[in-house]
Amino acid sequence: MFSEVYSEGSILKDQQLEGKSCSLMGMKVLQKATRGRTAGLFSLIDTMWPPVMPLKAPGHGQTCEEVKTHVPPPSFCYILSAHPNVGQIDIIEGDPISKLYQPPVPHFLREILQTADLSTRCSFYARVIYQRPQLSSLFPLQQTEIWLMVTDVTLQMQDENNSGLPKTVPVCVAPSCVLSQEVREALTEAAPHCFLFRDALRTQGRFVCVERSVLLLQKPLLGVDSGAHSCELTGPVKLSELDSITQVNSICCLQGTVVGVDESTAFSWPTCDLCGNERLDQSPGDRGAFSCRDCSHVVTSPVLRRHLQVFLDCPTRPQCAVRVKLSQTSIASLLSLAACEDGSYEVKSVLGKEVGLLNCFVQSITTHPASCVGLEEIELLSTGRASSGSGHCPRP
Q: For the domain 236-266+308-396, what is the CATH code?
């Protein structure tokens, strides 16, 4: 029989109970959950079935006989909670790790992707190389889903068999996934981190961290070869090319020829040349100067930032409109070819220009009334720029 206990303790305290024999006092049954109504819970129970200890049934005598036949996994589970002021969970001191304990077994991402997708739980180590949205310490982390783009050494290796596996995979962290303070802080840093994704749900071709999934921050161990547990990559991060199987909320690389510019969404705005803040106020009596709200700096030479989206003719997506929101660096490079003497820009001057290699986040994919892919150029969290996963995108 399985039961799930709702605990009022902290995440750290709950993790200290893992694998231990405990005594439960003052518990009450909230409900009897069934497999049909609580699929997420039973997908986790299935990872712990069958038990590592032989099942026993009462025999004719005083002893129990081992059950030799196959026993199906349980179809129900009790949800327990502690009565206020009297309920508690205590570790039974002196007991070794319980023989019933089955820790999750991490697998390489390549192994997981090559197995059938049957809405199952899986565990893996992976390095986060991009996340969306970009978080800050003030961001309400538990009120929105987070998309993490991850990879490991098995996805980054050369694919001589052309298996069609992606170089990176997206992981959706749902609001129901409870994150520890350590993980929260790591996700607010603009730096790559390695995590153990425990009991993530793999369903409908994607990974989702939901309730009962656990993210654990992995810290590098100097001089230790952790084998399958290693998140270290052996070279620059490679991305898969944009192609017909690229999915929304994933990342890819591409290059192509500019065939159009979205002039209706093109605009520019000044920013502070000291702190980069966009909140500038016009200085009284001097139309050429601004005052920065953040650092109070008098801005006489603001840095101009631009918003520009272009349409590309992309060899890997023929007969498809590929729309890319460019980064500031790519915009500056492209417009340097189109500047007129008066400082204006001619659209025709950028048409036919080659752009790439671009690292992009896939914002949207539509097929009706026409095939169109919406992308945004991004900067990866890993050091250096990414290289491609095939011969069509050369190293920059």
A: 2.40.50
